[in-house]
Write a structure and sequence with these properties.
The chain is 63% helix and 2% strand. The radius of gyration is 15 Å and the shape is globular. The termini are far apart. The relative contact order is 0.15.
Length: 161
């Protein structure tokens, strides 16, 4: 119970967290979704009931990264369709996001800037993506995540040339 929550497949806590996140996301009322979509920053997200509903359900499983989860929640509120087969960096490569824009995302050290960039790009993928992949990336962003995103993005870009 002292373990940090993650959303990775293949471990009991990760599988339970994935299930909790999906239940929470599917269970958002239109009002809750609208409240979250109106948020502009992570600080605004932590002032909402839907955020605390998710935190409460996840805390039953372990420790929650409350410094990183609000940014993920802000993005999840924008997503209209869960597409498990589509991960955002690959999708961004498919829709022609410029290399310089993508590298800027990878290089930014500010979680707020990262969330703002991704939020601006969600319309390009018609607000449909894998929310589990996105959430895990937002809470565990670091060299490993950046490398995984780059591999996904550039593999698609290379096949389009």
């Amino acid at each position: 119970m002292n373990e940090w929550i993650n959303f990775n497949k293949g471990n009991e806590i990760g599988d339970q967290a994935r299930s909790e996140l999906m239940s929470w996301w599917h269970g958002l009322s239109p009002k809750d979704s609208a409240d979250l979509r109106r948020c502009r920053t992570s600080a605004e997200v932590v002032e909402t009931r839907p955020y605390y509903n998710l935190v409460t359900s996840l805390k039953k499983l372990g420790r929650v990264q409350t410094n990183k989860l609000p940014g993920a929640v802000l993005l999840l509120a924008q997503v209209k369709k869960y597409t498990p087969e589509q991960v955002l960096p690959r999708q961004l490569g498919q829709v022609g996001l410029k290399d310089i824009q993508f590298r800027l995302l990878l290089r930014t050290s500010s979680p707020e800037q990262r969330v703002a960039m991704i939020r601006r790009w969600l319309p390009r993928v018609k607000y449909a993506t894998n929310i589990l992949f996105l959430t895990q990336a937002m809470i565990s962003w670091g060299p490993g995540s950046r490398r995984k995103w780059a591999e996904q993005f550039y593999q698609v870009e290379n096949t389009n040339q």
